[in-house]
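Suppose you are handed only these lines of text.
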Amino acid sequence: MKLAVVPGDGIGKEVIPAALTVLDAFGLDIEKVPLEIGYGKWERTGSALTDEDMIIIKECECVLFGAITTPPDPNYKSVLLRLRKELDLYANIRPFAPLANVKLPCNKKVFDLVIVRENTEGMYSGIEELHEDAAYTTRVITRKGSERIAEKACSMAKKRKMQITVVHKANVLKSDSFFRDICISVAKCNGILHNEMLVDAMAYDLILRPEKYNVIVTTNLFGDILSDVAAAISGGLGLCPSANIGDKHALFEPIHGSAPDIAGKGIANPIASILSVRMMLQWMGRETEAQILGKAVDSVIVRGIVTPDLGGSNSTIEVSDAISKIINVP
Ligand code: NAD
Ligand code: IPM
Ligand code: MN
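From them, the structure of the protein bound to nicotinamide-adenine-dinucleotide can be written out as follows.
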């Protein structure tokens, strides 16, 4: 198994080495291929991701990705979006459930939901025009893109509660009534119960009643925004992992970005990246290792070995070392 390792920028350079120490504790036969890709490289060389990098990544089965700074500069093209598109990683899977002992901003302690985000089209189509007095972005929703993400949501619902919530803005956007209708017909074909929510109401309800939801399927930008909302109610971005899944490749990454406000201080929470490694182990079919890893994370949090975002005083490496130690000597 070949794994491309892309720490990226900012805290990506801290949390990915930390997550690798945890992966290494399992002693699996995984060949790691380190790659320097990102905004830092763009500043230095004028290229954030070269064609050679892309060839190397395509030769790997999967990617472990930290975070890459994506400035709001129309001349800079997001590396992550290029990877998602070129590797056709159409399903962005973002699970959320409170971890033991983590203080939450609201008093909902019991919820377990997953956002299944379409990852290759929608507002991220890349079809854009920038003129002097106007700018346009074409929102693309295709039958193929909607069917395959709805199928993914249904296959996840079959392992959960046999129901999906389709999130859209079909009261305004024709492209979203198209998306909604396809999701509903895929759900019916799969024998999965469905309900639907407008995205604004969903953002509101997710904070107040997260326990009502199980599998949420939505378009690209709405999934991006809702997943930061879900991260907030789950105890913070430092805890939330994700998987970008295609038919041939997969990329695992924390939901958070490069966090320039805390980068270089050694205090970034590595748990989002470590749980992304857990999702990678599950994707590899290594359920036993995934379970051991999950339990080790829980036990380190319960023992209070946590970074400042969780109210602790431990460093990134102290947290990952404590988790690795439990895996080595359970
Ligand atoms: P961010 O996710 O980097 O940070 C938001 C807040 O959460 C900050 O206060 C940060 O300190 C905190 N935070 C994030 N991860 C944390 C962790 N592991 N431990 C403790 N605290 C953590 O979002 P941002 O500041 O809006 O974005 C910074 C840059 O990252 C931008 O250039 C953005 O485009 C990029 N970004 C990249 C990715 C990615 O590559 N996957 C994802 C999101 C944002
Ligand atoms: C995410 C990020 C990315 C997105 C950015 C960095 C391109 O916010 O993965 O959540 O918008 O998808
Ligand atoms: Mn995001």
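What can we learn from it? The first helix runs from residue 12 to 24. The radius of gyration is 19 Å.
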